TrEMBL record:
Confers DNA tethering and processivity to DNA polymerases and other proteins. Acts as a clamp, forming a ring around DNA (a reaction catalyzed by the clamp-loading complex) which diffuses in an ATP-independent manner freely and bidirectionally along dsDNA. Initially characterized for its ability to contact the catalytic subunit of DNA polymerase III (Pol III), a complex, multichain enzyme responsible for most of the replicative synthesis in bacteria; Pol III exhibits 3'-5' exonuclease proofreading activity. PANTHER family: BETA SLIDING CLAMP, DNA POLYMERASE III SUBUNIT BETA. Belongs to the beta sliding clamp family. Forms a ring-shaped head-to-tail homodimer around DNA. This is Beta sliding clamp. Residues 1-120 form the DNA polymerase III beta sliding clamp N-terminal domain. It comes from the Bacteria. One of its GO terms (molecular function) is DNA binding. It is found in: Cytoplasm. GO terms for cellular component: cytoplasm; DNA polymerase III complex. Residues 134-249 form the DNA polymerase III beta sliding clamp central domain. Pfam families: DNA_pol3_beta (PF00712), DNA_pol3_beta_2 (PF02767), DNA_pol3_beta_3 (PF02768).
Length: 374
């Protein structure tokens, strides 16, 4: 095998590939990238047996062949090369080392057998549709903060995508929850997605998909079954296993009769939360919201530092319901308000019941936040 490629193009592809290759796995081949040059095309592939990424890049193929080399090592070498160089990779025989040349730099990389490189396989992916890159970005960005990291509840370790029946017809809905907060975002159902099964896309796949979206063309092709999902964006194809579990009936935790409504500017609120929470270094310490008509008082306390308070009056908030005191973890409040563009609406019931949070300008998103005792 022998080929040459522009350093910038090769580096971009390796950045995608090396983050999937398993660096700490006990199976050495999973740390490698499979490089295949054939029929005038060059493809790079990496897998950890849960996710697989394949990317084709333009290159000058001088001799067909295939090999595998450590992905992170190759990435670091190419990353540190000068910007404008042409990178040549040459393997004289299938068992020999891979020679890399760039300008006056040269190195030899040890290889592992191509025969040992695993293939995930996809089986049949009967559901196919296309979704706008911007739409998919919004669904991912506004829900992924709520993905659980608790491994015992593995079925919460991802985003649940499904076709939901609503009063407005079927919608594509993304949901994530960790038991403390819930994020639900929906959009128009793409053509072809009517029969899609409900699927839970794992946290690591979500992270890789998010990188892919940033560099994707206008639309991303999605193919899925009950056990696999595949995203294709231009020359990059991301395939992943799905979480084999049942996502909880999340609608049950969304309250229906929260009638105490607070509206406040996102920046005014999040800045005030950050200021009062700064008094305590404990991430789990609550911020208390004391509400009365025309006034919101935020406060936090620390046994070591004392108490911090800040008031937002009727010039910056709208609230005309009964008085209420309720507490939330500061980080959870800011995680949700970070998803809001301008104005945020809170719908309360009482101090111990779940609170609904909405972006006033984006009714497609809904968040639920569990209070803390204060």
């Amino acid at each position: 095998m022998k080929f040459s490629a522009e350093r910038a193009i090769l580096l971009k592809a390796l950045a995608h590939i090396q983050s999937v290759a398993e660096k700490r796995n006990t199976i050495p081949i999973l740390a490698n990238v499979l490089i295949q040059a054939a029929d005038g095309r060059l493809s790079l592939k990496a897998t950890d047996m849960e996710i697989e990424v394949v990317e084709e890049i333009p290159a000058t193929i001088k001799r067909d062949g295939a090999t595998t080399v450590p992905a992170s090592v190759l990435y670091e070498i190419v990353r540190k090369l000068p910007d404008s160089v042409e990178v040549e990779l040459d393997q004289a025989d299938s068992e020999g080392p891979l020679l890399l040349r760039a300008d006056r730099y040269a190195t030899r990389l040890n290889v592992l057998s191509v025969d040992d490189f695993p293939s995930m396989g996809t089986g049949d992916l009967p559901c196919h549709f296309k979704v706008g890159a911007g739409v998919l970005r919004s669904l991912v960005d506004r829900t992924r903060f709520a993905i659980s990291t608790e491994e015992t509840r593995y079925y919460l370790n991802g985003i649940f995508f499904h076709a939901a029946d609503t009063d407005a017809g079927k919608l594509l809905r993304a949901v994530a929850t960790d038991g403390h907060r819930l994020a639900r975002v929906e959009t128009e159902l793409p053509a072809g997605a009517e029969t899609m099964p409900g699927v839970i896309i794992p946290r690591k796949t979500v992270a890789e998909l998010r990188k892919l979206i940033d560099e994707a063309p206008e639309e991303i092709e999605v193919a899925l079954s009950e056990t696999r999902v595949q995203f294709t964006a231009g020359p990059v194809m991301l395939t992943s296993k799905l979480i084999d579990g049942t996502f909880p009936e999340y609608d049950r935790v969304i309250p229906l009769n929260n009638k105490r409504i607070l509206r406040v500017g996102k920046k005014d609120f999040s800045d005030a939360v950050a200021r009062v929470a700064a008094i305590s270094q404990e991430r789990s310490r609550p911020v208390k919201l004391a509400l009365e008509p025309g006034l919101l008082t935020l406060s936090a306390s620390s046994p070591e530092q004392g108490v911090a308070t800040e008031e937002l009056d009727k010039t910056r908030i709208s609230y005309d319901a009964e008085a209420l005191e309720i507490g939330f973890q500061a980080r959870y409040l800011n995680d949700i308000t970070d998803q809001v563009e301008k104005d945020v609406e809170f719908a309360f019931s009482d101090s111990s019941a779940p609170t609904i949070v909405r972006d006033v300008d984006s009714p497609s998103a809904l968040y639920v936040l569990m209070p803390m005792r204060v």
